UniProtKB/TrEMBL annotation:
Assembly with partners or alone: Homotetramer.
Chain sites annotated for binding Zn(2+) 2: 93, 96, 99, 107
Assigned keywords, A-Z: Cytoplasm, Metal-binding, NAD, Oxidoreductase, Zinc
Start and end residues of each Enoyl reductase (ER) domain: 12-338
Species of origin: Nonomuraea cavernae
Protein name per the record: L-threonine 3-dehydrogenase
GO biological process: L-threonine catabolic process
Length: 368
């Protein structure tokens, strides 16, 4: 089969032929239909310091995907050949204290798909059945492919109650955009998202935010005045990992405000802890998805009409992976999708849909 492999300890990825994986006990074999390019994949392609100290080569990369089940091993229940599925890319040990207590997202022994074991940028991938999420209602395979980052957005956004609250989101990358869509959908009063990319702020405006603010030109305080806000934000969602963005967020919170921080800084940085203390601000670190409460939340949000289609801006055949990665690295787009089912969309008419694709009623307005 074809797969995108990190073959050598240098920048780049290579599309090569590798053996098709064989599912082990309790695993499922999945034919990959779509994959999403993540920031982690960009780090791996660049082979930066993190990648150099984390990866064991060669490695098939990728962890965001949707696909069709083609084989289940004996003993696997509730998953059938032909099901459209996504995958939870964090494989946990099941034996540590947190796993035994049902807090699997806090497992200290987590293994990452496409990081610590061969991933999903391939024609086929295997996963433990416990990590396979079956889409029981019709979902566009493109949207199903981004359930991993969508889960990050939902986990972060729903860390604190949002109904009627004023929400500040720093970073209008794909996950920040999805978090903005969630906050708006569930009933936040004002949703303000900040960035310096005009293209991404334009995408945010399409998602119905109250204000998409270019902080290179306008301050958050000015934005609050435009919205008639007299006090600070109730909830902050930090998605950028940018030190100044975090400092500005802390300075913009109301007393008793709560911040969920998903953005991963490149290095340590200082913040105004005196304001955190005297304003009684809560800061919560967020990583991955709660298994599997977040997955239920995602599916229900889509069932109830949440539209993620504006977030997916670019689609490529996997043969054009270099162009796709360059687009994702530009910092000017939403989510970038690789099509593994027979070519990019202009050529799709030449191929019969898979069973899973045929079952998914695609509605670009967000309905099913």
């Amino acid at each position: 089969m074809k797969a995108l492999v990190k073959e050598r300890a240098e920048a780049g990825l290579w599309l090569v032929d590798v053996p098709e994986p064989v599912p082990g006990p309790g695993e499922v074999l999945i034919r990959v239909l779509r994959t999403g390019i993540c920031g982690t994949d960009l780090h791996i392609r660049k082979f930066d310091d993190w990648a150099q100290h984390t990866l064991k080569l060669p490695l098939i990369v990728g962890h965001e995907f949707s696909g069709e089940v083609v084989e289940v091993t004996p003993g696997v229940e509730d998953i059938s050949v032909g099901d459209l599925v996504s995958g939870e890319g964090h494989l946990v040990c099941g034996k540590c204290r947190n796993c035994m207590a049902g807090r699997r997202h806090l497992c200290r022994n987590t293994v990452g798909l496409g990081v610590h074991r061969d991933g999903a940028f391939a024609e086929y991938v295997t996963l433990p059945a416990s990590n396979v999420w079956v889409h029981r209602t019709p979902v566009d395979p493109d949207v199903a492919a981004v359930f991993d980052p969508f889960g990050n957005a939902v986990h972060t956004a729903l860390s604190f109650p949002l109904v009627g609250e004023d929400v500040l989101i720093s970073g209008a990358g794909p996950i920040g955009l999805m978090a903005a869509a969630v906050a708006t959908h569930v009933g936040a009063r004002n949703v303000v998202i900040t960035d310096v990319s005009p293209e991404r702020l334009d995408l945010a405006a399409k998602l119905g935010v109250s204000l998409a603010l270019n902080v290179g030109q306008t301050s958050i305080a000015d934005g609050m005045r435009r919205l008639g806000m007299r006090e600070g934000f109730d909830v902050g969602l930090e998605m950028s990992g940018n030190p100044q963005a975090m400092r500005d967020m802390i300075a913009s919170m109301t007393h008793g405000g709560r911040i969920a921080m998903l953005g991963l800084p490149a290095e340590e940085f200082a913040i105004d802890w005196a304001t955190v203390v005297t304003s009684m601000i809560t800061i919560k670190g967020v990583y991955g998805r709660e298994m599997y409460e977040t997955w239920y939340n995602m599916s229900v949000l889509l069932e109830k009409g949440l539209d993620l289609s504006p977030v997916i801006t670019d689609r490529f055949s996997y043969h054009d992976f270099d162009a796709a990665f360059d687009t994702a690295a530009s910092g000017r787009t939403g989510k970038v999708i690789l099509d593994w089912s027979g070519g990019a969309r202009p050529e799709r008419a030449r191929h019969e849909p898979t069973k899973a694709e045929a079952a998914a009623t695609i509605d670009t307005s967000g309905g099913t």
